[in-house]
């Protein structure tokens, strides 16, 4: 399988907070933010591997600021690390100048028989991409150590 540049998976999505997105406090529902990140992360993972994907995990989910009805937001997702069987995707939701939420989602690639599919190796082209990859590798190491995986 031919290695894929990190830039190939970059996915951008713009949205607006709608009334149906709000919780009982009139704020954007955290579960809705997670769903949007998962959907955008899936697109980044699919761009990287070229096949369907399933969500394996969500790590380091952090909510930073609230949003209200009518607020505009942007979602940026990108595969920042791969293993033989997984793709680790960074997701950032922002509203103009403020960070709303960030997380790392993990996806597996599957074929039409729902069997594990191969994942191309990821490579970086810029110092910024290399930094993102190193940050994700550190998270990966922390998660694996917590799960007792060597």
Question: Could you give a short description of this structure?
Answer:
The protein is of the alpha+beta class and about 150 residues long. It has one domain: Roll (Thiol Ester Dehydrase, Chain A).
The description of the largest β-sheet is: 5 strands, antiparallel
Q: Which stretches are poorly predicted, pLDDT < 50 over at least 5 residues?
A: none
Termini separation comes to: 26 Å
Query: Which H/E pattern describes the elements?
Result: EEHEEEEEH
Mean pLDDT reading: 96
User: What fraction of residues sit in β-strands?
Assistant: 35-45%
Backbone structural class = alpha+beta
- Number of E-type strands: 7
Using the CA coordinates, give the radius of gyration. Answer: 16 Å
Number of domains: 1
Percent of residues in helices comes to: 25-40%
Q: What would CATH call the homologous superfamily?
A: Hotdog Thioesterase
User: Which second-level CATH architecture applies?
Assistant: Roll
Q: Going across the major beta sheet, what is the strand order?
A: 2-4-5-6-3
CATH topology: Thiol Ester Dehydrase, Chain A
Give the overall silhouette.
globular
Question: Helical segment tally?
Answer: 2
Structure description:
With 150 residues, the protein is of the alpha+beta class. It has one domain (4-146): Hotdog Thioesterase (Thiol Ester Dehydrase, Chain A, Roll), CATH 3.10.129. Helices cover 27% and strands 35% of the residues. The protein contains 2 helices and 7 strands. The protein has helices at 30-49, 127-146; strands at 4-5, 11-16, 53-63, 72-82, 87-95, 98-109, 122-123. Strands 2-4-5-6-3 form a 5-stranded antiparallel beta sheet. A two-stranded parallel ribbon has the order 1-7. It is globular, with a radius of gyration of 16 Å. The model has no long low-confidence stretch (mean pLDDT 96).
């Amino acid at each position: 399988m031919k290695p894929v540049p990190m830039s190939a998976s970059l996915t951008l999505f713009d949205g607006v907070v709608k009334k149906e997105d709000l919780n009982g406090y009139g704020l954007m529902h955290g579960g809705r933010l997670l769903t949007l990140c998962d959907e955008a992360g899936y697109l980044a993972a699919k761009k990287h591997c070229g096949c369907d994907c399933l969500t394996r995990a969500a790590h380091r989910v952090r909510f930073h600021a609230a949003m209200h009805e009518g607020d505009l937001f942007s979602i940026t997702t990108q595969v920042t690390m791969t293993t033989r069987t997984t793709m680790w995707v960074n997701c950032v939701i922002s509203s103009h100048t403020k960070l709303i939420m960030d997380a790392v989602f993990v996806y597996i690639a599957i074929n039409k028989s729902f069997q594990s599919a191969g994942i191309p190796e990821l490579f970086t082209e810029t110092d910024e991409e290399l930094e993102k990859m190193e940050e994700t590798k550190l998270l990966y190491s922390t998660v694996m150590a917590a799960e007792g995986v060597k």
